[in-house]
Specification:
Length: 387
């Protein structure tokens, strides 16, 4: 729980650490960048709110106060519905046990769509729709890259069987959805562009298969932040979903999707000790503040647990959060560097850029909103967790 002191703090020096900082101008620039791309390509942006989990951020992301939006948990859907969001896609395969919560959200006035990828899943949605006398709309998940769940676009017979189970069973077939998660493993920008086209083609082919089978498919939904940022052709697509673009992170920078200077999220931490013989600087941000995510370990530049910056957000040369304990981090020089270890006395405030904005954000209950290098804290925006 955020302390009263932290919630009321007006400067970075007054904040309790560790805590989460959000650079509002960087965030706004990231939002405008993707919105401009989507407008140029002629598709609707359905922002994935799993990254911010914040009503204040969501209002800046969505086209209208009512949406559209995508979420990963029903907790998110419920929170955003209470805030007035009405067009929500629950973009994870729905389990039968959650359908009562889905129906409650729809009865509340939220146009909530679910996702299925099997005949059994479609039958469960249809059966619950019939019992409630209220059709639940669903998208069929398409496997565009072998990365996770979904029906292959060439499985036309299975696609149509799922669609008929929904339409004939009392639910509603609304379209298809895919997510090119494999784009996160792309070695360069050309590979991301190739993946973006593969993602588009899979969704469009699946939509055509449904239509050829006499089934409706008004929605063709694709998206991941890398493919959204590099797609060159979205013909046949009706909407794009993306989430981490709002903040970006070191993993996205390592892919070439953004610059390190675009990262809007950081963790404010305090120097709490030194181990001179080991060239260690100890801080109060451990893995409970940063998360265990080490996604950049597989990239050409390993950022360990994060890049260390001064309190104004300016990175030190080759200084990283190299090791973490639960509530303590160890700041060290990057292996092989000749850069000197900076003199950072006890009590010095630092910022650490995260590997994965979603994972680091999930460790915190609020954003402390700042503007660039200014020490002023403009606002404290709550965020939520849970399922």
């Amino acid at each position: 729980m955020t302390s009263d002191k932290t919630a009321a703090a007006s400067t970075l020096e007054a904040l309790d650490t560790p805590c989460l900082l959000l650079d509002e101008p960087r965030m706004q620039a990231n939002i405008e960048r993707l919105k401009t791309r989507m407008a140029r390509l002629g598709v609707t942006l359905r922002p994935h709110l799993k990254t911010p989990k914040s009503i204040d951020v969501a209002r800046l992301l969505m086209e209208t106060p009512a949406g559209p939006a995508a979420v990963s948990t029903l907790q998110e859907a419920e929170q955003f519905a209470r805030a007035g969001v009405r067009d929500i896609l629950y973009a994870v395969g729905v389990s039968p046990a959650k359908l009562d919560r889905v129906l409650a959200l729809r009865a509340y006035g939220t146009d909530l769509t679910v996702v299925v990828d099997s005949v059994a899943g479609a039958q469960a949605v249809a059966a619950r729709s019939r019992a409630a006398g209220a059709p639940i709309p669903a998208l069929i998940e398409i496997d565009s890259d072998g990365h996770r769940a979904g029906v292959r676009p060439d499985q036309a017979e299975l696609l149509c069987a799922i669609g008929r189970a929904l339409e004939d069973g009392g639910a509603q077939l609304r379209g298809v959805l895919t997510h090119a998660g494999e784009s996160y493993s792309s070695p360069d920008e050309d590979a991301i562009r190739t993946m973006a086209e593969r993602e588009r083609r899979a969704a469009v082919d699946a939509a055509q298969a449904l239509r050829a089978g006499g089934l409706p498919c008004p929605v063709v939904s694709v998206g991941s932040t890398p493919t959204a940022m590099f797609a060159e052709n979205l013909d046949g697509v009706t909407e794009v979903r993306a989430g981490v673009f709002v903040f970006f992170d070191l993993f996205m920078a390592g892919l070439g999707v953004c610059r390190q200077d675009d990262i809007a999220l950081s963790v404010l931490t305090t120097v709490i000790g030194h181990q001179p013989e080991k060239d260690w600087i100890l801080v109060d941000a451990g893995w409970m503040a940063m998360s265990r995510d080490r996604g950049t370990a597989g990239q050409p530049v390993d950022q360990y647990y994060g890049v260390v910056c001064d309190v104004q957000g300016r990175p030190f040369a080759d200084l990283v959060l190299k090791q973490t304990n639960q509530e303590q981090g160890i700041v060290m020089r990057r292996p092989g560097t000749s850069a000197p270890l900076p003199q950072l006395p006890l009590g010095t405030r630092l910022r650490i850029l995260p590997n994965h904005a979603c994972a680091t954000g999930a460790q915190h209950d609020s954003y402390h909103v700042v503007r660039g290098t200014s020490p002023e804290v403009l606002a404290c925006w709550p965020r939520f967790r849970g399922w």
